Amino acid sequence: MSYAHTEKNTPPGPNELAMRFFNDLCVDLAVLVPRIPGAPYGFIDRSMGGGERWEGELLDALGTCQVFIPLLMAPYMRSKWCAMEWHGFSRRRVVRLNPSASVHQTCILPVIWAPAPDGFPEIVGSVERFAGENLHIFAEEIALYEAHGIFGLHRLGRSNEYHTVVWLLAQRIQKILMHHRVEPLALDVSTLGTSFEEPR
Fold first, then answer.
1. What does the pLDDT average to over 108-112?
2. Which positions ≥6 away from 143 have C-beta within 8 Å?
3. Among candidates 182, 179, 183, which has minimal Cα distance to 98?
4. For residue 187, with 0-12 CB atoms within 10 Å meaning exposed, 13-18 middle and 19 or more buried, which class applies?
5. Considering the domain boundaries, does residue 2 fall inside one?
6. Residue 103: how many CB atoms within 10 A of its CB?
7. Within a domain: residue 9?
8. 114-123 pLDDT tens trace
């Protein structure tokens, strides 16, 4: 999971809520996706400043994870660390596990964290954002998520809608993992783009 770290704040601030979202998603994935014993369901950089761990665990996770989940908000678009993460994952080759799987799957699953009035750079806008499935059943929950983002659902006290969106996201990840595999790649931090305006 990729997100733009904010300045240290009084909990529950944006950083802490990102961790809570990550943990809640892992709980839902635990009942949907089998995993190797002892292996985590995902990775999120828990350092507060952003970028401190690029030479180790974060870079390894970026080169081996199977689904890349960026938390979109205005500060994300201006973060060089987030751009590096996006560029790094984009370099990896996506393989279809069956002939019926989509040839256009990137395994990048952008999630709206907070509204971004100025929109998104082309590289981000070209990837379909997570919008949930079964819209006829969960139309109200998805509409609130698309209007306010995950962080907004927290701030509005919409706990039921929040948990519905997390569950639908976990199901979407499950489907991606069933039909696609992303080949591992050793990434060199010095070769990664630091802006979303740079070509992939």
1. 97
2. none
3. 179
4. buried
5. no
6. 7
7. no
8. 999 888 899 9
